[in-house]
């Protein structure tokens, strides 16, 4: 699938991080959409089109891990990358055990994120 047809959705309550990630995805040639909350993403038309989801772990309302669980429970297995400014080994282990592709601590290296995206897209 051409990169431009590959939608990467970013869910982060921090506007500067959300927009930076969206810009990075677009600069890499992907289609990117950004959402301020898990609920906003779930209520969008982008869920079925999303090839990869990048979500913050700590957000008001539904967390990134809860969003991943919700998607899996509803039959939508979107490869998910979780990012966090508050790394927690217990949450990391649980997330990876629950099928999250990557768990990255902010600030993270752009190359690490790209490796996670390639892994999630099997490229």
Describe this structure in words.
By secondary structure, this protein is of the alpha/beta class. The chain has a single domain, classed as Rossmann fold, CATH 3.40.50. Helices cover 40% and strands 21% of the residues. The chain contains 5 helices and 5 strands. Strands 2-1-3-4-5 form a 5-stranded parallel sheet, sandwiched between helices. Strand 1, helix 1 and strand 2 (31-35) form a beta-alpha-beta unit. The longest helix has 13 residues, at 15-27. The termini are close together. The mean pLDDT is 94.
Write the element-wise H/E pattern from the N-terminal end onward: EHEHEHEHEH
In the predicted model, the low-confidence regions spanning at least 5 consecutive residues are: none
Could you give the count of β-strands? 5
Rounded to an integer in angstroms, the radius of gyration calculated over CA atoms is 13 Å
CATH homologous superfamily label: Response regulator
Q: What is the averaged pLDDT score?
A: 94
Give the terminus-to-terminus CA distance: 10 Å
Q: How many discrete domains?
A: 1
CATH hierarchy: architecture: 3-Layer(aba) Sandwich
CATH fold name, please?
A: Rossmann fold
Main features:
123 residues, Rossmann fold, alpha/beta, 5 strands, 5-stranded parallel beta sheet
List the helices and strands and how they pair.
Elements: E1 7-11, H1 15-27, E2 31-35, H2 38-42, E3 50-56, H3 64-73, E4 80-84, H4 89-97, E5 102-105, H5 110-121
Give a nutshell description of this structure:
The chain is an alpha/beta fold and 123 residues long. Helix content is 40%, strand content 21%. It has a single domain (3-121), classed as 3-Layer(aba) Sandwich (Rossmann fold).
